[in-house]
Every structure is written in C-alpha cells, then in structure tokens.
Write a structure and sequence with these properties.
mainly alpha, 18 helices
C-alpha cells in the first residue's frame, strides 16, 4: 500500500529521479520533525527521572497519531510519509543484520524452529475456522488467516492472486493491519513486567505475534538489543513459512479448478530487506563486518526506527474502524488474541 502511495505521489515513469526525490522531502522532513520532538521529550524524561517512562519510539507514534487526528496531510506530504513508514524502516531492519551472528540461530535449537512452524499452522487453522464461523467467505477467511498468522499485508498481497480474491476482500482484510500493528507495538512491551518475561522470552513473543518484520524491530527496541535480535530472527523464520503456504494454496486451487494465472514473484515471498538482513548477518558471522561498526549501525537503526514510527502514526486514522464490518473486526481481533495466548504459553516454556 505504501509503495502505491509513493509511486502515485512521486509521479509516473516519466518523472526524473530528482523530481521523485524532491516529492519525498516534505513528508520525510515532517517525520524527522516529529521524531526530533519525541527524542527531546525522552531527553527531558531522562533528565528529571533518570529513565524514560515513554521512549521516543512510542512517543513518535502517539504524536503522529495526535497530529493525524487534527490534520490530514495533503498529497504534498503523503509520498514522504509513506516512504518513511515503509522503506526507511526496511533499511533499519536490513542494517540490524550487521549485529547478528548465525550462532544465535544455532543456539535457539530445533525445538524453537519446530514450535514456530507449528504455531503458524495452528494459527492459520484457527483464524480460518473463526472467520468461517462468523459467516465470512472462504477467500476472505484465507486472507485474514494468512495476514494474522504470517506477516500481515505482505502475506495478504502474496496470497490474494493465488486464490483470486477481489479488491473488496483485499481491502477488508488489510484495513485493520495499520491500527492493530500500532497497538501491538505500543502494548506488547507492557507484558514484560506483567508476565515477568526475560529478554529472550519477550523477543520470541514479539517475533511470533507482531505483524511485520519492521514492526518487530519497533516493538523490541525498548526492551534491548537481545530482544530485538531474537525477535527479528523468530519473525524471519515465521515469514519464511509464506513460501510453503503459497505453494500449498496453489496446489489446492489447481485441484479445485480455480488456479490463477497470476504468478507470485520471488521478492513478494522474500522481500529485499530480508535478503539484505541475511547477507549482513552472514558477513557478521564471518567477521567481515568488524565489531567497531556495530554500535554506529545500531544507533542509525534506532534513529530510522523512530522516524518511521512517526510516519506510521501520521498514517493511522482511528476513524477507519467505523468503515470496517463487525464480523471482519471480530475475526481479525479474535484471531490475534488467540495467537497471542498461544505464543505466551510457548515463551514460558522457553525459560
């Protein structure tokens, strides 16, 4: 969705690279401004309380949402806001790979890998069953199940052409992604003291429940680098389940005589920033990336994330809830709550 906004605002294929960059500047500067105010407010908290009760990352989302409630950015601002919310956050995820060694994956063990796959399968079945019980159509139920269980909009976009979903079904299934994604980023850290979660446990929980890889980064940064690394790895493993799901749906549709001619490209299944993340993690594991650059890259990652969260807040209109059907709302919300409950049970097993 964000890509479409960027392309529409920045111009058509006849636009020059310079004009496209110029179209992004106002929105990016707006997001940087909101992020700067958020960072300043966090600095004030540190000065008076020695610890920020509300981190800049969370503050940026809330400020962005507050601004959006009173002012809808015009077309002039939209391209840069969409770019900051999506591409800048994807760059941050890619850079995070430089701080991760594949030794962390090996240390997680086969049990965690198997548990992730099992949870995705169970979540798919439960979400689909709930949606059907609530009276939703088969295709819409599949979209909701894949979006909740794997990776939000990316999964919906990959599965939609396979099952022949129409525009109304796609719009209905993704309408909650932005709002629920923000709610998870804001609310999930509250479970750390409530459930007495360790950094490892919280990272696993975030990776299993948050919709998108970039949002996992946002949800885990306040909990520390260990949670961020583990959460990102768990989420990447979860995203990789999209490939087998798409293949299974393709085979099913072929047997039902409803196979679609539209193909799903490799970069739809495995986004570029995940490939970049894995490439940097490989270089870090081989010690090609020196330890001395990890700290600066971590700082850059944190800054880009705050800017992106400001953009995410600016793009959230809570009034969109009024335009979503009650059955879709119930299906998406209940599916997410069940996924959260199953994941909480799992993380308490991984002490």
């Amino acid at each position: 969705m964000a890509d479409k906004k960027v392309s529409s605002a920045a111009g058509t294929g006849t636009a020059t690279p310079a004009s496209r960059i110029a179209a992004l500047i106002p929105g990016i500067l707006l997001c940087i401004g909101v992020a700067g105010i958020s960072a300043s407010l966090e600095g004030v908290e540190r000065h008076y309380f020695a610890h920020p009760y509300v981190e800049a990352l969370v503050m940026a989302i809330l400020l962005g949402m507050a601004v959006r409630s009173f002012w809808k950015p015009s077309e002039r601002w939209q391209a840069g806001i969409a770019f900051s919310a999506k591409q800048l956050l994807e760059v941050a995820v890619m850079l995070l790979g430089a701080s991760i060694s594949f030794a962390a994956i090996a240390a997680s063990g086969v049990a965690l890998l198997a548990s992730i796959a099992a949870i995705v399968v169970v979540a798919l079945a439960v979400s689909f069953g709930l949606s059907r019980l609530l009276g939703l159509g088969t295709r819409l139920s599949i979209l909701i199940a894949c979006g909740n269980s794997i990776c939000g909009n990316s999964a919906i976009a990959a599965v939609a052409p396979i099952i022949g979903a129409d525009s109304d079904e796609i719009a209905s299934s993704i309408s909650f992604t932005a709002i629920l994604g923000v709610m998870m980023v804001l609310g999930l850290p509250l479970l750390i003291p409530l459930l007495q979660l360790s950094a490892t446990q919280y990272g696993i929980l975030a990776g299993l429940t948050v919709y998108a890889v970039p949002q996992v980064l946002a949800a885990t940064l306040p909990a520390g680098l260990v949670s961020t690394q583990i959460g990102t790895l768990v989420k990447l493993m979860r995203v990789l389940m999209l490939g087998p799901v798409v293949i299974a749906l393709s085979l099913f549709m072929s047997r039902q005589g409803g196979a679609q001619k539209k193909s799903v490209g490799f970069f739809r299944l495995v986004p570029w920033f995940i490939l970049g993340f894995l490439a940097l993690a490989t270089l870090r594991s081989l010690e090609v990336v020196p330890t001395s650059v990890v700290s600066p890259l971590t700082t850059i990652t944190g800054f880009l994330t705050v800017v992106s969260m400001a953009a995410l807040g600016l793009g959230v209109d809570v009034r969109v809830l009024a335009n979503v059907g009650g059955r879709v709302t119930a299906a998406v919300t209940l599916s997410l709550m069940l996924l959260l409950a199953i994941s909480i049970g799992l993380v308490h097993w991984f002490k």
